[in-house]
Amino acid sequence: MTTGDAKDPLNVLFLCTGNSARSIMAECIMNREGLGKFQAYSAGSMPAGKVNPFALNLLRKLNYDVSSLRSKSWEEFSGPDAPKLDFVFTVCDNAAQEVCPIWPGQPMSAHWGLPDPAAVEGTEAERALAFDDTYRMLFQRISIFVNLPLASLSKLSLQKQLDEIGKHGAAATKEPA
């Protein structure tokens, strides 16, 4: 695995069943926070076909470019022309339980499950708050991830860090002695 520099960013795929909210937000956050080190993508096992309007509104409000966002199948990332993936993160519990395609390059993976903000019912304000909460949790996890000292972590230690980020949203950045 490379360490990801300006010439060779590491490819990260975020998976969710519908690819309409959580994985889309994660893609945007990673592409901004990991600029130069990471290139993010998102996909779903059963794509909804459109990005959730609450997710789009939140991302626009936070000055993300949403013009190229679309709900797409994970099959786009399993073929011979797909980018070589370095990391695959599931952000919903349903996708984590599904049988995933075989990813070229054997990327490291972890489950970073979050509640589905699109499933929240209530007023517009309550639904928007659910998307705000999801964004905050994704931002925290991705910020921790992009600041890990990838070059100095063994593969086993890195896997442990990735799993911890998904469980608690925090991880130590030193390799155990």
Automatic annotation (TrEMBL):
Keyword set includes Secreted: no
Domain Phosphotyrosine protein phosphatase I, first and last residues per copy: 10-148
GO biological process terms held by the UniProt record: response to arsenic-containing substance
Coiled coil: none
Species whose genome carries this gene: Methyloceanibacter methanicus
Superkingdom of source: Bacteria
Pfam families per UniProt: LMWPc
Protein name, as recorded: ArsR family transcriptional regulator
InterPro entries referenced in this protein's UniProt entry, alphabetically: Ptyr_pPase (IPR023485), Ptyr_pPase_sf (IPR036196)
UniProt entry keywords in alphabetical sequence: Arsenical resistance
